[in-house]
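Sample 1 of the test manifest.
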Amino acid sequence: MFGQLADGFLALTDPVTFLYLIGGFLLGIVFGAIPGLTATLAIALLLPFTFGMKVADALVMVAGIYMAGIYAGSITGITLNIPGAPSGAITTIEGNALMRRGEGVQALGVSALSSAIGGLIGTVVLISLAQPVSSLALLFRTPDKFSLVLLAVVTVAIVSQGSLLKSAVAMAIGLMISTVGMDPMAPVGRFDFGSYHLIEGVGLLPAVIGLFAICEMIAQSGIPAKLVQGVSAAQAARPRRRDFIPRREHLRQIGVLNSVKSSVIGVVIGMLPGGGASMASFIAYADAKRGSKHPEQYGKGSYEGLAASESANNAMCGGAVIPLLTMGIPGDAVTAIIFGVLLIHGLVPGPALLGANFPLIAPMFAALFVASIFVFLSVLAFGPVYLRLSQINRGFLYAFIGLISLVGVYASSFSIFQMWMALAIGVLAYFLRRFGYPVVPALMGVILGPYFEEFLRRSLIVSEGDPTIFLRSPASVILLLMTAAFVWFLRIRPARLAAAAQKGEGA
Amino acid sequence: MTRRITGQVLFAFVLLGMNTVYASQLLAMPLPFATGEPGPAFMPVLLCGFVYLGVLKILVDEFRSPEPVPDTERALSAIPRLGIVGPLAAIALISLFVIVFFYAGYIVAAALYTFAIALFFNYEQSGSWGRSVLFAVVTSAAITAFGWLFFVKLFGLYLPMWEL
């Protein structure tokens, strides 16, 4: 394994592969930093291009986007008080407070260093755990696999923001979209309405482009520019590059233990289906505040809080890739699209992937590691530019996104019908979003739907319709108990506590 | 007392309508477990039932919630009622792009589409036609050329270029 991993790092010395890493990294920075655009959208736009790439180049570029995109969400959060991505929301609280205090440049430096540390720890954990978890996952039988997919489906639905019911309905809509086309177990078409286009089913690419790129463009067209682009508080400052290096007193204040602990929290949350960078940064921030000697500084510009949030959300990247590569379960939207990149190149994510195909995946591990280092180097190189990133012209941006995504759908399928499909899904996603139905569960439904249905039906065929088959295997029982525990701890308990608190206030 | 029908309620009815269209296809499939196995209709039946129940509960909750306060239009944009006009314009422009792409090819469709989108966003922001048109022309030429270079030259993918 170590030899193959070394080959993965060696692959990055190929100038073309290295350029893909740099290109992906810069794309991730731009998309992560601009409010409204995310790493997810950047990878979705890249998806059609990966058809023409070598698999290692595609994965290396995706890794660069992922690491940079998660980090860059904090850039405009710190400078403009508008997080570029949801993962930067917690960082924004402390980072922008520091910016208003005149310490924005140091905040950007600390944010980059903490993200780099988190990213490195996450990648080391990924490299260490990927193969053992794969070996374990090979022992799973069909009912166990169903319980695992059920855990992913339920967790993604319950961790989404807003109404649980709307999240569950969005998930069901995604699962319904996945049922269009040929039945996975019998040679019959379903929900094709007699159209030969629909018999092939809804492709992953039109679904991803529709749910993210088209939906985002439609949504942005209804938002006034004045609401999106704040006045840059950073315009007055003209910092030098060395000003971005974190000062010793700030590093002492943060502490090594705090960074490592936040990173471990990020990795663990990343491994849970539906965890995501936002939840990782929030929990690490809350934990850091709980154990801090200066909790009163939180919310007013705490380097400790800023570092905790940033370490956790970048450590999440390595953690989130573990269930994808080892069990074929994407935990969030980005890993769901990486799932698509792997499928496009004939690699099926799951326990067998890291066996024979490890040499193909190793460059991605190496890229995550190197991209983590780039995160810190980038603030030294482009720090002054970061302060102006959010000022890109919206007309240019959305004309670019619209054209590349639609032509990308055509180029991948040579089908005008798939372009209409992307538009239809985009319009549906826009209305879902507008009325408070989260879009990510719908995407997870589209991706996990075929597995969910196949494992469920196969299990019931084996048991002749007896649903207790899911309670006969220890692995399945553990996974079902975990599902129940997540529902209890993430939804029911907090709701009861909130209700009790409200009752207490009313009395 | 009559209650105002909100967008939230209308969308819930649209979802119910779409679910009914989906359900209509179930009639062409054998019943689950008719042959002793779950069969192709098994999961769709479960999903359909769940969506009916879920959306009906959302509707009930919506009718029980307090009457929403209508948004007051804020003069932040050069385009009136941007929240409605913007998305409609974006959907119309994407539809036109697909149609023109089919009949006239990439160059014409991409140039017109990127021009229109750039014009819309720039006019919305600045309120100045002259400056917006100028910027849209430059944007359109740059992005159309970039798309051609990227898809056709760099990745060797086929695009219908001129179909007129």
